[in-house]
Amino acid sequence: MTSLAIETTNLTKRYGDNVALAPLDLAVPLGQRVSLIGHNGSGKTTLIRMLAGMLEPTAGTASINGSASGTTDARAALSYLSDQPVFYDDLSVWQHLEYVARLHHTDAWEDHAHDLLDRVGLTERADDLPTTFSRGLKQKASIALAFVRPFDLMLIDEPFVGLDRMGREALLELLTWAHGDGATLVVATHELSSVTASERLIALADGEVLFDGDPDDADPNSLADGVFDRRAPE
């Protein structure tokens, strides 16, 4: 069995002459909590979407738990929490939870789903259509969906955008719980409390890695801004 949750070799994404992600060799051990930071256009979302199998690389390879990204085994191992939640038009929050849980053959999911809704403050909105929600409520619903199913790896792209304090605290608690349960976490974020809770920090700028190591070894002024780059933060 592989000891790596994520492994990339020469992983690259280009759009014509524009390099969205320079050739990247990355190894993330099982169970590691990683924060990924960088300015808008630095390559964070590009990397996460290629790992999730949502975006084809221009060159190189990526694997999840030893399986090529985008394959059935890789998709089964990971949960993806996007910064742009997408929902079915005709399903309520609860129906979404049931659909995702059953799709991943989750046993006794109902109690867990109730707990998730309570944590994010959506218990009273369980029968409502999330497509009608505000940006913040949509993000809370997507958090519940991401955590209702089993996963070995969670890929998270700017999850704190639009969340109120209750939502932010609930998400941080869920991330800590998942990590304590052995999950690997990769969080693209500018949330300082999430960065400092991580074991590893990777900073990107213009598609290249500027820093990869212990957050305590990084420039604290840059950490406070949530950016290691030459541009304005997102």
Describe this structure in words.
By secondary structure, this protein is α/β, with parallel strands linked by helices. It has a domain at 4-86 and 151-165 and 182-225: Rossmann fold. The protein is 33% helix and 27% strand. It contains eight helices and ten strands. A hairpin with a 2-residue loop joins strand 1 and strand 2 (18-29). The longest helix is centred in the last third of the chain and has 16 residues, at 165-180. The chain starts with a strand and ends in a 9-residue tail after the last helix.
Question: Layout of helices and strands, plus pairs?
Answer:
Elements: E1 4-15, E2 18-29, E3 33-38, H1 44-51, E4 59-64, E5 67-68, H2 72-77, E6 78-81, H3 93-103, H4 109-120, H5 135-147, E7 153-157, H6 165-180, E8 184-188, H7 192-196, E9 200-205, E10 208-213, H8 220-225
Parallel strand pairs: 3-8, 3-9, 6-7, 7-8
Antiparallel strand pairs: 1-2, 1-4, 4-5, 9-10
Helix pairs in contact: 4-5
